[in-house]
């Protein structure tokens, strides 16, 4: 950092598309362009983001189009692949885009790719490139090809190669190498050669044929007396010092301005290529710099146009100035301004810059690099006022500010399971580490730690690596090491490639895009919360005016913010980690006790009395410090003008990623500030105002911690929770909740994105958002550890929260589940008609289940709980709740129909083999509906080999149902040839009839078996004669208990037929005629 205010902040963005339109370009030497070719495919690859970039740029359309305004191209390290990607935040048409990958047969020359916008074909980009084989290739790319759903139509167009592709050798690039190529306008490119020569390529009106215009200088081959060498090495290329480094077109004057390595500043005719003016840039430099080469490491951008007749040029590295010139009609130059660049780090190299004139004020962005480190500075330059300079907070700097939270959670994790949950939430949240980063970290770890890799997912591989010893403390060390490795990899992948000032929206202060080796970032205005958190000494004039309306001074708020940070630094790391641990396991029930605990057990041991006295003295010097503290707590939702964004504007993947990244950053800042406030409040007198403010700080601390974690939860294309790989923040669960407020989305602009974020936080810092996330996790069948973590943030004083907490306990198979729902019954049922619209929306993911409990009847509440538990396979708990329903109904003397409850008790009791309870439930049923339950009851007894148990139950008036069922089961078994089972049923029928005192019917059961068995005996299909004899003896004994005339039995034909279970109506009874009676012989 250079010590400037961080008025801006870098936020990563990323498109989530895993598909790409791949076009395999034929060999450039093949001129047979007629007909069609088949090198086109729609390739689905989750590793699209793994591509590193050798060089690339952004291009912003000039004419505007109906799809998007900005596109990037990236040349991959092989130099045989070029990836074109749309870059947009607002997706007004709600279209899904994918990148286009151009796959060449020959390598592209470094820095020899340009993108032009066709002036004749609407929505068409022209990609020009020079290959190592010396071909100049031109491709007309329709923007419709980027539309994922238009693949088939695009494929048909692409197949006709000659309509969009040309390849030629207009120049001997193999003899005179190209140094760079740059687009000047929609028709013209300029090409700089390594030998110092220069020419233009001009496209005709039909965008087909190219015309070469050499740019000749009379003294091109002359070399005067100079200490500047003829050539130098740029990488491995020998380049003439006459070679042009950069060029810009001045359309109004039909000229091109160039600057070379040896500092020649030249103006050329755009029409003829003739040299119009040449002078040495040295005359504008200090004397000691006049003989130095302009740049031995050619930067991307040196010269820019400003309006119709002005240009800006960055001076050599040792000068660190920006020069503004006016070009006169006679092509002479007038020096207008020299702007001293504020950064003076001698080892930092200039990379590139952007400049724009906004209402007479110059807005300048300048990028410096040192290895993988970079610094982006912003200047506002206007005549008559002092230059204003600030810088952007980088992703690495932001991550370091948020690192302490991760360290605290790792340190305070009490089990391996909780530690793993912390680690996975931090590493797999998609910002700033993607799958590629984590894979590379695993590869590095494998060099030092031997881990057998037989895993099937990235998540399993990480868990196996960090937990290889299975010991909690060692795993904590490994998690920290692994995250640090990921941080280093992300930093190296964050090396800068190019810079773009977004001019697609008419804003004084526009977004800035940064292309990196992997990924893209946006530079946006820092929020007021971010400015105070990073200690920026100033904010914009408009924000100062707003703060005055709020009766708050920025300088006073900054003084307090610095004091908070200074006091936090008084604590050592162990002390802070201990406080984090106390806060993370605490609830907000007894705030004074929590404050006393923190002070007594930590603060009093870590902070000296002198430090406390100094803190109190500093606080007294801040006017109205308590109100300023309250103001700091409101910063994350600070929207003083009640700004409402334009709604129903769809967000693109990049836009959603931006909001997710910004949300995490702001939540991290607010959480840190709330933590710092609590440190101060426990140190001062624990009075009512301090307790109240501590409670507010603690609530914000918990909410922001929850928000940080919630952006780690995302869905895949099938709407399932992503668990085995890094998540996609652009598809995070919070966006589903935010959609309720904004519809498809809200317009993202740099001038209003902070107010949009304040609006979003106003929604997601509410308890209803917590409920929504937990209900979403329940509906997505999240794992127990994730559910338990997120459910710990639920406000259990909320009846709706109690419902969700109970569902989580159900998921966790908690032994306290039954008592929890019993205790919560009154609160939930009494609130059923008071559920707010927001609460209704928060439980929408599990609405069908939650609505079963949000009823005004306690019996219905318990009964529905039984249904839910039963559907979850928890029959024991389900039975308990249904019994509670019946008991509660009786206590309330509720005379309404209870047949559903009794039937459910019977069903569950029978399923659990609680036969006595099932029997009791049958007796409570109305006789008209008993038949089916009785049959189920008897069947279950038979299934459980508890057939004799049927005898202990009194069925009384329902005896016929039971008797009919058992006898018919015997008939059915016999008909099927299973005499062993038939004997069991007939004997049970015999015993049951005997118990009822119907001796003849009892004897008939055994007699029926004997008749069937005897028939089989004749056919030698049965052999147990003794059993038949024993049965006859029993039958005779029973008959002899009757009068002589009553000693008869009904004999049915042995030809057995199967009857409907429970029906004996077709059995014919014999007459009293003695000849029609059968003796038991």
Automatic annotation (TrEMBL):
Coiled coil: none
Domain called Nucleoporin nup120-like HEAT repeat: residue spans: 773-942
GO cellular component: nuclear pore
Transmembrane region(s): none
Domain Nucleoporin Nup120/160 beta-propeller: 70-527
Intracellular or extracellular location(s): Nucleus
The keyword Mitochondrion belongs to this UniProt entry's keyword annotation: no
Key words of the record: Nucleus, Transport
Name listed for the protein in its UniProt record: Nuclear pore complex protein Nup160
Species annotation: Dekkera bruxellensis
């Amino acid at each position: 950092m250079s010590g400037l205010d961080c008025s801006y902040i870098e936020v990563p963005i990323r498109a989530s598309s895993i598909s790409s339109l791949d076009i395999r370009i034929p060999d450039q030497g093949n001129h047979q362009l007629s007909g069609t070719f088949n090198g086109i495919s729609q390739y689905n690859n989750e590793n699209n983001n793994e591509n590193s970039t050798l060089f690339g740029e952004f291009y912003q359309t000039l004419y505007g189009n109906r799809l998007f305004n900005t596109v990037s191209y990236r040349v991959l390290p092989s130099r045989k692949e070029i990836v074109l990607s749309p870059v947009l935040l607002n997706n007004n048409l709600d279209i899904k885009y994918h990148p286009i990958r151009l796959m060449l047969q020959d390598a592209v020359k470094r820095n020899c790719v340009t993108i032009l916008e066709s002036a004749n074909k609407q929505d068409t980009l022209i990609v020009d490139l020079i290959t190592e084989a010396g071909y100049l290739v031109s491709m007309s790319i329709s923007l419709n090809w980027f539309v994922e759903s238009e693949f088939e139509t695009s494929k048909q167009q692409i197949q006709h190669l000659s309509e969009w592709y040309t390849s030629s050798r207009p120049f001997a690039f193999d003899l005179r190498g190209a140094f760079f190529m740059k687009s000047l306008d929609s028709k013209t490119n300029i090409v700089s050669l390594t030998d110092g020569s220069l020419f233009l390529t001009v496209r005709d009106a039909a965008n087909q044929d190219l015309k070469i215009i050499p740019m000749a200088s009379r003294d091109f081959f002359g070399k005067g007396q100079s200490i500047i060498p003829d050539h130098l090495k740029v990488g491995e290329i020998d380049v003439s010092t006459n070679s042009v480094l950069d060029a810009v077109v001045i359309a109004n004057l039909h000229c091109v301005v160039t600057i070379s390595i040896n500092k020649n500043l030249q103006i050329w005719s755009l029409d003829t290529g003739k040299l119009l003016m040449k002078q040495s840039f040295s005359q504008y430099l200090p004397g000691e710099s006049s003989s130095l080469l302009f740049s031995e490491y050619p930067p991307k951008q040196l010269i820019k146009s400003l309006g119709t007749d002005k240009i800006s040029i960055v001076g050599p590295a040792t000068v660190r100035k920006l020069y503004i010139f006016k070009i006169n009609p006679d092509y002479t130059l007038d020096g207008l301004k020299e702007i001293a660049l504020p950064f003076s780090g001698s080892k930092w190299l200039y990379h590139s810059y952007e400049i724009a004139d906004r209402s007479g004020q110059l807005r300048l962005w300048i990028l410096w690099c040192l290895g993988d480190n970079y610094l982006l500075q912003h200047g506002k330059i206007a005549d008559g006022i002092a230059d204003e300079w600030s810088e952007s907070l980088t992703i690495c700097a932001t991550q370091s500010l948020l690192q302490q939270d991760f360290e605290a959670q790792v340190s305070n994790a009490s089990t391996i399971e909780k530690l793993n949950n912390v680690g996975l939430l931090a590493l797999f949240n998609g910002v700033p580490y993607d799958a590629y980063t984590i894979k590379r970290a695993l590869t590095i770890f494998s060099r030092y730690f031997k881990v057998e890799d037989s895993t099937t997912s990235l998540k399993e591989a990480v868990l196996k690596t960090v937990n290889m010893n299975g010991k909690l403390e060692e795993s904590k060390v490994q998690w920290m090491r692994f995250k640090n490795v990921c941080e280093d990899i992300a930093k190296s992948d964050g090396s800068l490639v190019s810079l773009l000032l977004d001019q697609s929206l008419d804003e004084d202060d526009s977004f800035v895009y940064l292309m990196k080796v992997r990924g893209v970032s946006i530079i946006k205005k820092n929020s007021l919360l971010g400015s105070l958190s990073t200690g920026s000494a100033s904010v914009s004039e408009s924000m100062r005016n707003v703060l005055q309306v709020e009766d708050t001074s920025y300088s006073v708020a900054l003084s307090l913010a610095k004091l908070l940070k200074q006091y936090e630094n008084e604590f050592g790391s162990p002390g802070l980690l201990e406080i984090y641990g106390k806060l993370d396991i605490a609830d907000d029930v007894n705030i004074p006790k929590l404050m006393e605990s923190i002070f007594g057990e930590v603060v009093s041991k870590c902070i000296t009395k002198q430090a406390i006295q100094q803190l109190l003295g500093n606080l007294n010097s801040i006017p109205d410090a308590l109100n300023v503290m309250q103001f700091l707590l409101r910063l994350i939702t600070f929207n003083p003008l009640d700004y409402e964004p334009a709604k129903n504007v769809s967000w693109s993947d990049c836009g959603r990623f931006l909001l997710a990244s910004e949300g995490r950053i702001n939540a991290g800042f607010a959480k840190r500030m709330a933590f710092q406030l609590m440190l101060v409040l426990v140190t001062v007198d624990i009075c009512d105002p301090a307790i109240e403010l501590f409670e507010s700080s603690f609530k914000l601390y918990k909410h922001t911690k929850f928000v940080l974690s919630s952006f780690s939860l995302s869905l895949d294309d099938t709407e399932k929770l992503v668990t085995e790989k890094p998540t996609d923040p652009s598809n995070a669960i919070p966006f589903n909740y935010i959609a309720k407020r904004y519809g498809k989305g809200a317009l993202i602009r740099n001038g209003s994105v902070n107010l949009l974020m304040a609006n979003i936080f106003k929604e997601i810092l509410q308890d209803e958002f917590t409920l929504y996330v937990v209900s979403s996790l329940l509906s997505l069948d999240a794992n127990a550890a994730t559910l338990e973590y997120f459910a710990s943030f639920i406000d259990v004083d909320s009846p709706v929260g109690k419902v969700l907490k109970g569902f989580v306990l159900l998921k966790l198979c908690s032994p306290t589940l039954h008592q929890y729902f019993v205790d919560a019954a009154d609160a939930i049922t009494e609130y059923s008609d008071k559920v707010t619209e927001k609460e209704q929306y928060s439980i929408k993911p599990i609405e069908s289940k939650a609505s079963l409990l949000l009823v005004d009847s306690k019996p219905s509440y318990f009964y529905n709980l039984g249904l839910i538990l039963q559907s979850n396979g928890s029959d024991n708990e389900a039975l308990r709740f249904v019994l509670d329903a019946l008991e509660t109904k009786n206590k309330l003397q509720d005379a309404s129909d209870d047949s559903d409850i009794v039937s459910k008790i019977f069903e569950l009791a029978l399923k659990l083999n609680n036969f006595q309870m099932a029997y009791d439930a049958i007796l409570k049923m109305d006789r008209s509906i008993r038949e089916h339950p009785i049959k189920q009851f008897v069947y279950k007894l038979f299934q459980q080999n508890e057939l004799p148990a049927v005898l202990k139950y009194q069925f009384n008036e329902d005896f016929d149902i039971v008797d009919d069922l058992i006898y018919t089961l015997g008939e059915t078994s016999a008909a099927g040839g299973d005499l062993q089972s038939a004997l069991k049923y007939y004997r049970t029928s015999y015993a049951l009839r005997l118990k009822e005192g119907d001796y003849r019917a009892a004897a008939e059961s055994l007699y029926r078996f004997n008749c069937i068995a005897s028939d089989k005996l004749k056919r030698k299909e049965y052999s147990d004669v003794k059993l038949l004899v024993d049965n006859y003896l029993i039958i005779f004994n029973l008959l002899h208990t009757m009068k002589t005339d009553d000693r008869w039995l009904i004999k049915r034909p042995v030809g057995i037929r199967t009857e409907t279970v429970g029906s004996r109506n077709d059995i014919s009874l014999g007459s009293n005629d003695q000849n029609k009676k059968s003796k038991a012989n």
